[in-house]
Known about the structure:
By secondary structure, the chain is mainly alpha-helical.
Amino acid sequence: xxxxxxxxxxxxxxNAVRRGGLRLVWSGSRLLxxxxxxxxxxxxxxxxILERTAAEELRQICLTTPSCRMHLRSGWxxxxxxxxxxxxxxxxxxxxxxxxxxLLLPVAGLLxxxxxxxxxxxxxxxKQLHDVFLITLVRLIIGLGFLTYVHGAGATFHVxxxxxxxxxxxxxxxxxxxxxxxxxxxxxxxxxxxxxxxxRRHITFGAIFxxxxxxLDHNEYQGEYDWAESVNLVVLRxxxxxxxxxxxxxxxxxxxxxxxxGGVVVHNPHVRxxxxxxxxxxxxxxxxxxxxxxxxxxxxxxxxxxxxxxxPVVWYILQLAVAMAILEMxxxxxxCFALARSGVIGTLEPRLGCWAVFLTLxxxxxxxxxxxxxxxxxxxxxxxxxxxxxxxxxxxHFSVASFWKCWHASYNRWLVKYIYIPAGGRKQxxxxxxxxxxxxxxxxxxxxxLLVWGGLNAFFIAAEMLFTSVLxxxxxxxxxxxxxxxRQLCVxxxxxxxxxxxxxNMIGYSxxxxxxxxxxxxxxxxxxxxxxxxxxxxxxxxxGVQVMLGIxxxxxxxxxxxxxxxxxxxxxxxxxxxCSENAPCSKCD
Length: 589
């Protein structure tokens, strides 16, 4: 049941089913056909029987291993009568975020109501520029207050960073020095937040302002988190501001030249590159700690002209509540985070190891989905519609490139706009993709496992592009002459990509290179058991890919249905699916 419910957490599929119902599922796909009933039997065998059995065994292993059990805490959701009721708190990020929800949720509601009230008051004046400035000022004050609460005295370094970016941007915008200056500042800020690098030791009150101010470096003045923990996301917003301002200046120069020669001047009157709007965007409270990442131009346009959300907020909050409930159930059922953090996952037999990897990635997806959707829900209530970060469920990906378009999708859009396209885009895919993943690895943390993770992702995406282009040319006629056989070939490719995704992400986010190496060595020595585990994995993943293809058929049918309901005389404008194969390829977190 949880497997199918997770598909309904996808905005596109949920909207398709909500509007078309079972009639659309029946007519637009084969999800309700006899053939698919066989796939559902395999999925039930895998996720309903084998997964449940493996989860119980993994739970018992964690409970009997001291290094794993130390990460468990008393739970509130009863699971098994004969075992302790515990909850997995090994993931520090989720543990801290979950502990702050009692304060975060009511504060988010109150601050959103304050911004809405300020919006109503401001627009009663009838002066648009005055309205925008007043609402922006209210958001800036809230952002500064939130920054101070989170980082205490450390908020000073964020203000200095914003001020420095703004000065450099205004001084270099429209010149050839702008891009290297902006990226130089960005890399310097990323280096400054790394605790192991020497630069970090010099970013203190005592080192910058003198010994008289060194008392502010003490923990009691530093707020809830160290100032360096949120630098990464602030840097993304400041780079967006600087490069958007630079591109606007270049466009203005071209338009001026075109206007002198009789051309048409094109500009956006709703975007103003001011210090107030720069700081408001960088410190925007709903998205400050976690994202999603919204570009400066998009944020500025929405401040001036709010847009309707792509999905009713009530439905979105309902999806969020369901995702939180599933996450709580999964952290009670199987302590995946504790198994990974304690290193126990690298000592498991092949069968349990495969399930531990799979379950860990599913819980990671839920964790990030909940954190990002809480932030986005707050922004929607505040009147800003940032991009959705998780377009598809974890069990709805069969392509490495497509996966990274949908995982932390707003970050992917940022990378495409500011790194991938300037680095050559589709004309230089391999080089541009490698540069993207190198930046992503450095942006997260400067660790060997993340550099390996970035390199492997870039390699697999390049290989996928190469093999896909070759096979498409050779099987183009097969898709129309024998569609069933062509679909099975796609399933084989999808299963291979899923296995690669699981291995690479476990290296980057969980056990590292050593853990994966130990796991492979243990699997190689298990002989027959490994072969049975591989066979079962192929069968279960193959049935899963068939369901993924069926879901895409439903979404395509919903899109055609919406297009047919439009008036023939009007063009139908359909926004591209950010997870489609035609979308620009980059990555996400």
